[in-house]
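User: Run a structure prediction on this.
Assistant: Running it now.
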Amino acid sequence: MNQKLIVSSALASVLALGLVGQVAAQDKPKEKCFGIAKAGQNDCANLSGSHSCAGQSKADMGTDEWKYVPKGTCKDMKGLTADEAKAKMKKA
């Protein structure tokens, strides 16, 4: 076999493995985590209905604002579930 062909094949294999790892990382289950988004870094509409798009939060760590996080990590970030966020908003 040609030396260049062997090197090219090896390089292509390494690159393909790297892409597979990235795709697998993106397929991990995610959950909405409320109260952790910084201003302008929310992922979509908020609970209060004051906006309907990502990146429109006005304040850091708004109870009604959320971001997607890997499943099981929200509590570690001191975040809230949707039900907890709704309950906290009713108390305020």
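The chain has a mean pLDDT of 85.
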